[in-house]
Each structure stands twice: as structure tokens, then as C-alpha cells.
Write a structure and sequence with these properties.
single chain, 32 strands, 14% strand, 27 helices
Length: 963
């Protein structure tokens, strides 16, 4: 029995040993395969770890992930140890090799399980990583609307590798945020960048708040960090391998992205896109491109309003009312949106629509649903003005009709008279300070530039806001009813106790005999064309009046109560053709500084006692023609600004002006002189004898020599450069040395109807170093503007605008060699009615035009090519890098703009082509002119164009505005 048991036990052991031997043999036989499997699994594990490590930073690791990564490292070391043993297997016994194969199998399973665990960790991590784009719910823009074109324009800059920072700038309510949101959501933008980071920069922003918003967007855990520098380093590390777009909405002030994010402009094609209502902020942010967003056109505003209101607007009785409603919104999408919400509720009830329109037209005094929010947004612009000076100046402009043109010099004079201009001891300082304030108001869109060069205007929305602010002020009571077709002076309860009254541009024919206006500071009655007289006692109570404007009325006399205006500082009587009498004693006007009596019949001698005047504007017809003429002007020896208008059609005007010149040279305090010299000799007299014409003189001048011609004042004058010296030479002959001398100090030059010269070079062009604007008109003997054969140095280096009209023998702008640096700042060229002109850009000229933005060619019948290939054979693709607009009108021989499509046209935004029937090919393809927004032309011309491919035609077709 014991023997049997022993035998059985021995059999089991033999079986077990045999089985073990078999396993070892199998392991030994599978060693190579197990090694390969282990290496494969180890490689997969390493790839998983690397993927995780590239997607995370140490600042967002969970504890589980830290453990997994640490365990991965240990496993990798163990795999390496097994790999080393495998490489030494030749010296091992069979059983050792079997054990190694077994260990590899077990490790392979361990690696596989650990990798699967890592995949789960990676999935969890992916949920915690920031998404590339956070879509924002926003208004979808209509195709080819003005806002959609802005989006397309910005897309071009985002796709341009040379452009790193782009700003969208515009007044409040112009849908800048909507544009930014559409760009944030755009599929093309998502493909351009690895990550888009949107941040709204509130008015109460701080570096810490902005940094926290970015960290939150990136899902970075930075608890415990205390310094901005540490957080910036974390953000920088997170983004350093990414191509990102930073989108900053509503930027109020300069944001130092390097300090906040630790980034600079050298990081992997990343870009910054910002929106601001302040162009100064855009410049401080050192943007490469600024895209201005203007209020919607009336057509686009109507489309937006129609879409939001829906079907009621198509009702035949409602549509005319609705169009008036849209006009009240001034193209502001913010306002259109709120107004559309209100009017949508009125359905098809015509009476409710009419009532709503009337209420909207006076929404400064009537509560309208949704308007509080709009007013609050608009008033931010007003409240954000830096000081009371700017606020007062803005509110004062609301005294003028909406959208009306306000002459800048006049407005600044009123500001000074009212005491708004601070820290100005003289008129020049006041002008400079006034223009600074004016530019600030324009920058924030509270005032707008007018089409007239020296005028501004206030849009109806901001004007209503201003009137609302004034009506709520405890310190101000106003009566403002300009351009309201009034025939009678308002009721007593309206004007009594008023600080300011504006009744300009009405039909008022009579004034009350007396008014109780002790607190009145400004009275504006100009252009009441039926007003023929002023009652004798009308001014009796106005002892604090500072501004009185009666210009453009039919008054014939000034009442004796005028002498009660002892605080008056500015008196405007110009363009009162019947005004001849003044019964008051003007000596009482001790504070009067500004007097304008141009185009009246009143004699200057009647104001002769006002020797303290600072600014005087008269016409030659205001001067006495008797024997004592020599003391009329020179008695005002404290004058700082003098303007004398000349009617060259009046008999004997030149003799009067000759005498006046002798008086003007005696005025030693002038800082501004506007005058017409009958002949060059009279200008020479002034230059030789006036102490003002000396080196480093602060005199600003506007001179005409010859027949006075004001037709081109708009071209030569500039609101941005109020101190520009202007010289107009009209119907002259040859070249006089004094003209060359004056041109050395001239900023804007008009050469009109001149004879005896063949080029501008004859006037000493090498010395025109201060020339910014140049107009040449009706000069029938000029053949070229610059004769390069007669100069060996750069000329017209600062010229910005060149306007050439009706010069029939002009053959070229530049003839001969072009010195480097010439025309380096030229931004605009206009060529009109140059009948013999064939070449615009002569050899070597186009290489200098790095700043050219606008080119217009009109009625030049010999032009066949805008850029002649024979003159520009080696033209590089980057030529004309800043050109934005190209206008070609009535050029019957024009066959092409450029020989082919090799130019990049990187800045071109709009072209207009009309009556150029032989132009069959445009110099564009699928990849150039990426910022082109519009092509204006005729339908028949567009239909006759020849295309290299359909893709280019389809691309440009969407930009067309055809008639």
C-alpha cells in the first residue's frame, strides 16, 4: 500500500515536472515573439505618455495622472532591464531563457493594462483641456452687407503673414462686437489657428482681471500664485508651441500683452485682434492695420431693420413710415436692433407706427422702450471724456442742427468766448487747444468730419443724447430749436432764464421788444432770412451775453441796446448785405475779441474804437475809400488774426488793397493772416517790410496772389492741419523770386491759370521741403510736374496730396531720373482732364510710392495703361503696397491697368471703373488683392470682361456693385 502511494506520488511529480518542462520549452520557443510584443507594447505606452505630456502642463496635472506618469517611468526602466537581458541571451542556459520569456509575457500584460489606464486618463484630460474655439451666439451677417465686408476685410489681414495685430475701430453702437463674434465663429479662422482666446475687456479692467480671464479660458489651475509675472510665465509656457489668436473686445486702454501673457510678436504666426472705439488705443497697441467701422448705409440699415421687424414692414402704408424710422437710427446697429424690437410689437397698426415714429423723433424728451439701454451705452462715450472742458465743448455743439456743417474756426471761437478753452493766453494757443479738444471728440465719434474740409458735424443720435444731458443739468437751461421752420419767436416761458438760445435757420421775422435774459450766454439767430430789424431794447437785459450770431439775416441796423452787451466776446454780422447802420456806442464792448463784418455795408470805422480786438474779419467793401484810408486797419494794433476778403469784380479793389498792405505790415502781433494780394509786387512789399516775415516767425498765412479764387479752398485747407500755410497763385506769369521765397514756407500750394512755366520745378522745387498739398489747375503750358533732369536730390519728400486738373499739355508727372526719397509720403494722386497725358508712372517713379493710397484718373483721353509696361519692365510684385482705392473714369483708350496679374495689390479695397469700354482684363487672380471689398462699374462693362479662369470671375463677382 505504501509502495502504491509512493508510486502515485512519484507519478504526479513526474507529470508536474513534465508539464513545467513543456511550459519552459514553450517560453523558450516564444522568447523572440514575446520580446517583439513587449517592445511593441512599450512603444505604444511611450507614445501614449508623450501625447499626454505634450497636451498638458504641470499646472493642470491631477494626482492620479502624476501617479500614472511616475509608474510609467518605472515600467519603462523595467522594460529596458528586460531588453538588456535579451541582448545577452547567447550566454544563458535554456531554463534562464525560458524565465526571461515568461517575465516578458508578464511585463507585456502589465504594460498593456497600464497603457489602457493611460488612455482613460487621457480621455479625462481631454475633457479638461480648453477647446480650440468657444463659439458665441451672435447675429448672422447678411452676405455682402457692409458688416460682412468688414469681416471679409479682416479675414484678409488674418491670413496675411506680415500682419500681426489688427484693430477694429468705430463709434459706439456700430456692431464692432458683432463683427468680432462672427470672426471668432468663422470656419476659416478656426483653420488658421490652434486656439482662439476671446476676452472682453471691461471699462473696469485690470491686469489681474484680464490675466484671470485668460487663465480660465485656458483651464489653467494657478491657485496659490501671487504675482502677475508668475501667471504670465504660465500662460506663455502654455501657448509657446501653439498658433493662437487673441481676441480683445471693447478695449478701453492700452493693454500690455507681454506683461499679462508673457508673449511678443515673434511667436509662431500668432496674432492679436482687438476692437476699440478709440483710435488712440489702437496706435498705443502698435497695431499693423486699423479697420474703421462706419455706421451702416441707409440701404444696409433698412435691410437689417426689415429682417428684424418681419412681415408687417411690407404693408404699403407702413413701409414709408418704417423708412423714416430707420433714418432716425443713423445707421447704428445697436439702435436699429432696439428700435426694431419695439416696432415689431406694433404689427400692422398704422396709427401705432406713426405714433412710434413721432415719439422716436423726440426720444430725448419722451421715454421709448429700449432707449434707456442705448442712451446708457452712448453716454459712456460722454462720461469717458477726460475733463469738463471736453464735455462742455461737446454739449455746445448740440446747439447746431443735426448733421449740419459747423465751421471749425467759428466753433473754437465760441468755445473760447464761453470760457471752455483753458490755459490759453492768446488766440493761437486757444486755436491749438481747441483743435486738440476737437480731435479728441472726433476720435470717440462724438463729432464727425464733414465732407467740407474745415467743418465738423454731430449726428442726430449723439445730438439727442447731448440735449437730454443738457435738459437734465441743474446749471443749464437751454432753448434749442434750430431749423424747425419757426416763424415766430418762442413763448416767454421757453426763453426766460435760458443760458443758451439757438434759433438759427428758421423763418423768424420779428423779435420781442424786450426779453428778460440776464443769464443768457449765447444767442444764435443766424440765417433767419426774414429777420429785418432788431428792436431797440432787445439787448437791454443781456449783460452776460458772450456770443451773438446774427449772420445771414436781413437786418439793416444794430440797436443802441447793443452797448449793454458789456460781456460780449464774439460778434458775427457777416453776410448781412443790408447792414449799414449802428446807433449804439460800441466803446462799451470792452471784452469783444472777435468781430466778423464781411459782406456787409457797414464801415469798419464805426468799430474803430475797438482797438482791443483780437480777431477781425472784414471785406474790402468795409473800408473807407477816402483820403484817410491808411489808419483803418493799423489802429487795431493788438490784432492776432486778420482776414480780409476781396471781391475782385469790384472796380478799384486793387488800389484799395495796395493801401491796406502798407497798413498790414505795421501789425506786429499777428499770428494769422488771410489776404489777397492783387499783384506779386504787393506780396513782395509785405515780405520785405513786415517784421512777421522773419525766420522762426509763428505767422500762419493764407495768401492769394492775383485774382481771388476761393473755388479750391476745400482741396488746400485741412481740419487736421489748421496751421497749414497756403499760397494760391492765380493767373500769374513766369517766376518771381518772392514766390520762391514764400513757397519755402508753404504747406499747400495752388497754381491756377498760370503761364510762362513748363513745370513746377521752375519754382525752385528743391526748396519746397514743407509742401504737403499741391493743386495745379488750368495751367495750359505745363508739360511735366517735376523735371528730374534739373535736380540731383530728393524733392517733394513730404508731399501727401497731388491734384492736377485741366492741364491739357501735361505729358508726365515726372520726367527724367528719380532720386531716392522723392515723393516718399505721397498718399493721393488725382488726374483730371489732362488730355495729352499718356504715362502716369514714369521709369523709377513707382518704386518711391510706398505710401500711395488713392489714385483717381478722370477724363484723360490718351491713357492706355495705368502702369505702362515699357516704363516699368522690372516691376516687383510688391509695388504700390498701400494702394487702397483706384478710380478710373471716362478713359476711352484704356486697355489695361497693368500688363498681367503679377502684382499683389495687398491693400487694395475698392475700385471704381466707368466709361472705360476698352478695358477688358483686370489684373487679378485667385490669390492677389485679398482685401478687395468692392468693384463699382457698369453691368455692360462687366459682362464684356475676359477671364483667365472662372474661379477668379466668381470670386470677384461677389464684390460687384453694378448699374
Amino acid at each position: 500500500m505504501a509502495a502504491e502511494t509512493l508510486a502515485a506520488t512519484a507519478g504526479i511529480e513526474v507529470y508536474r515536472d513534465g508539464k513545467c518542462i513543456i511550459k519552459r520549452i514553450v517560453y523558450w520557443m516564444d522568447l523572440k515573439r514575446n520580446y517583439k510584443k513587449l517592445m511593441q507594447e512599450a512603444g505604444d505606452l511611450r507614445a501614449t505618455k508623450d501625447a499626454i505630456c505634450t497636451e498638458i502642463s504641470r499646472f493642470r496635472l491631477t494626482e492620479d495622472m502624476r501617479v500614472w506618469i511616475a509608474r510609467t517611468g518605472m515600467i519603462e526602466e523595467e522594460v529596458i532591464e528586460l531588453e538588456t537581458k535579451y541582448e545577452k541571451k547567447q550566454r544563458w542556459r535554456l531554463d534562464c531563457l525560458a524565465n526571461l520569456s515568461r517575465d516578458m509575457t508578464e511585463k507585456c500584460n502589465q504594460v498593456r493594462n497600464h497603457r489602457e489606464e493611460g488612455k482613460l486618463q487621457k480621455m479625462t484630460l481631454a475633457m479638461e483641456l480648453p477647446e480650440p474655439v468657444r463659439k458665441i451666439h451672435t447675429l448672422k451677417l447678411q452676405e455682402n452687407s457692409s458688416l460682412h465686408k468688414v469681416v471679409r476685410h479682416v479675414l484678409g489681414f488674418l491670413d496675411d503673414e506680415k500682419t500681426r495685430r489688427i484693430a477694429i475701430c468705430g463709434m459706439v453702437g456700430t456692431a464692432k462686437t458683432t463683427i468680432m463674434e462672427n470672426l471668432n465663429n468663422h470656419e476659416k479662422v478656426a483653420k488658421m489657428f490652434d486656439m482662439i482666446i476671446w476676452v472682453s475687456v471691461t471699462k473696469e479692467w485690470s491686469e489681474r482681471k484680464l490675466q484671470d480671464a485668460i487663465l480660465q479660458r485656458l483651464k489653467l489651475d494657478v491657485q496659490g500664485l501671487t504675482s502677475i509675472e508668475e501667471a504670465a510665465l504660465i500662460i506663455s509656457e502654455e501657448l509657446k508651441e501653439k498658433k493662437y489668436l487673441i481676441v480683445l473686445d471693447e478695449v478701453w486702454d492700452m493693454v500690455d500683452l507681454n506683461k499679462i501673457m508673457g508673449i511678443n510678436d515673434n511667436q509662431k504666426d500668432s496674432k492679436v485682434l482687438l476692437a476699440s472705439r478709440y483710435d488712440g488705443v489702437c496706435y498705443d497697441m502698435e497695431v499693423d492695420e486699423i479697420v474703421d467701422v462706419q455706421p451702416l448705409s441707409l440701404n444696409d440699415a433698412w435691410k437689417m431693420f426689415k429682417e428684424k421687424v418681419g412681415h408687417p414692414i411690407s404693408h404699403p402704408l407702413i413701409e414709408p413710415i418704417a423708412r423714416h424710422v430707420v433714418e432716425e437710427c443713423h445707421g447704428l446697429p445697436l439702435l436699429i436692433d432696439r428700435v426694431a424690437r419695439t416696432f415689431r410689437k406694433k404689427d400692422k397698426n398704422v396709427s401705432r407706427w406713426e405714433d412710434g415714429l413721432k415719439r422716436l423723433q423726440r426720444w430725448d424728451s419722451v421715454k421709448i422702450e429700449g432707449m434707456d439701454e442705448v442712451l446708457e451705452r452712448l453716454e459712456i462715450c460722454y462720461e469717458d471724456l477726460k475733463d469738463g472742458e471736453q464735455k462742455e465743448c461737446f454739449l455746445y455743439a448740440a446747439l447746431y442742427p443735426e448733421e449740419s456743417e459747423i465751421y471749425v474756426d467759428y466753433l473754437i471761437e465760441c468755445w473760447r468766448a464761453e470760457g471752455f478753452i483753458n490755459h490759453a493766453n492768446n488766440f493761437k494757443q486757444a486755436r491749438d487747444r481747441g483743435h486738440t479738444v476737437l480731435n479728441e471728440l472726433i476720435k470717440v465719434s462724438l463729432l464727425e468730419r464733414s465732407n467740407k474740409s474745415k467743418c465738423v458735424k454731430m449726428n442726430k443720435v449723439f445730438r439727442k443724447m447731448a440735449l437730454k444731458i443738457l435738459s437734465q443739468s441743474a446749471n443749464s437751461k437751454i432753448l434749442v430749436k434750430p431749423h424747425e421752420e419757426l416763424e415766430d419767436f418762442p413763448r416767454k416761458e421757453e426763453w426766460e432764464l435760458a443760458n443758451r438760445i439757438s434759433l438759427m435757420d428758421n423763418g423768424v421775422s420779428t423779435l420781442p421788444k424786450s426779453v428778460d435774459c440776464h443769464d443768457l450766454l449765447t444767442l444764435l439767430l443766424q440765417r433767419n432770412k426774414y429777420l429785418t430789424s432788431i428792436p431797440e431794447l432787445f439787448f437791454m437785459s443781456m449783460c452776460h451775453l458772450q456770443v451773438l450770431d446774427l449772420h445771414g439775416t436781413k437786418i439793416s441796423a444794430l440797436p443802441f441796446s447793443l452797448s449793454n452787451l458789456i460781456s460780449l466776446k464774439a460778434l458775427y454780422l457777416n453776410s448781412c448785405p443790408d447792414l449799414i447802420e449802428i446807433t449804439a456806442s460800441v466803446e462799451a464792448l470792452k471784452h469783444l475779441e472777435v468781430l466778423d463784418i464781411r459782406k456787409t455795408k457797414i464801415n469798419l470805422l464805426k468799430f474803430g474804437s475797438l482797438i482791443w480786438l483780437k480777431c477781425l474779419r472784414i471785406s474790402v467793401c468795409n473800408l473807407e475809400t477816402g483820403y484817410h484810408i491808411e489808419t483803418q486797419v493799423s489802429r487795431f494794433d493788438t490784432l492776432e488774426e486778420l482776414s480780409i476778403d476781396v471781391d475782385s469784380s469790384k472796380e478799384g479793389w486793387d488800389e484799395i488793397v495796395k493801401m491796406v498792405v502798407k497798413e498790414v505790415v505795421m501789425l506786429k502781433k499777428l499770428t494769422s493772416l488771410r489776404f489777397c494780394f492783387p499783384e506779386v509786387d504787393h506780396l513782395d512789399l509785405f515780405v520785405k517790410h513786415s517784421p512777421l516775415w522773419e525766420k522762426d516767425s509763428c505767422l500762419t498765412f493764407q495768401f492769394s496772389v492775383g485774382c481771388h479764387d476761393s473755388a479750391f479752398a476745400q482741396i488746400l485747407e485741412s481740419i487736421d492741419n489748421p496751421t497749414h500755410n497756403i499760397l494760391k497763385l492765380v493767373n500769374g506769369q513766369g517766376v518771381d523770386p518772392v514766390i520762391i521765397k514764400v513757397l519755402m514756407e508753404t504747406n499747400a500750394f495752388g497754381l491756377i491759370g498760370h503761364k510762362g512755366v513748363s513745370s513746377l520745378s521752375a519754382f525752385g522745387i528743391e526748396k519746397m521741403n514743407k509742401m504737403f498739398n499741391c493743386l495745379i489747375d488750368r495751367c495750359h503750358e505745363i508739360k511735366t510736374i517735376v523735371d528730374g533732369h534739373k535736380t540731383s536730390e530728393a524733392v517733394l519728400k513730404w508731399l501727401e496730396n497731388l491734384y492736377i486738373k485741366d492741364v491739357p499739355k501735361l505729358e508726365s508727372i515726372w520726367e527724367g531720373p528719380v532720386c531716392a526719397g522723392s515723393l516718399a509720403q505721397l498718399a493721393s494722386i488725382t488726374l483730371c482732364k489732362c488730355l495729352e497725358l499718356k504715362k502716369i508712372f514714369s521709369h523709377g517713379m513707382i518704386q518711391q510710392l510706398l505710401q500711395l493710397k488713392h489714385l483717381r484718373v478722370d477724363e484723360c483721353y490718351q491713357i492706355e495703361e495705368i502702369i505702362m509696361e515699357s516704363e516699368n519692365a522690372q516691376l516687383v510684385p510688391e509695388a504700390l503696397p498701400k494702394l487702397k482705392t483706384l478710380i478710373l473714369l471716362d478713359l476711352p483708350r484704356l486697355t489695361r491697368i497693368w500688363a498681367n496679374d503679377s502684382l499683389e495689390w495687398p491693400s487694395l479695397q475698392g475700385i471704381e471703373i466707368s466709361m472705360c469700354d476698352m478695358l477688358k482684363i483686370l489684373p487679378f487672380n485667385q490669390v492677389n488683392a485679398t482685401n478687395l471689398q468692392s468693384i463699382k462699374g457698369q453691368q455692360s462693362w462687366w459682362g464684356d470682361l475676359v477671364w483667365e479662369d472662372d474661379a477668379t470671375k466668381q470670386r470677384l463677382q461677389s464684390l460687384c456693385i453694378l448699374d
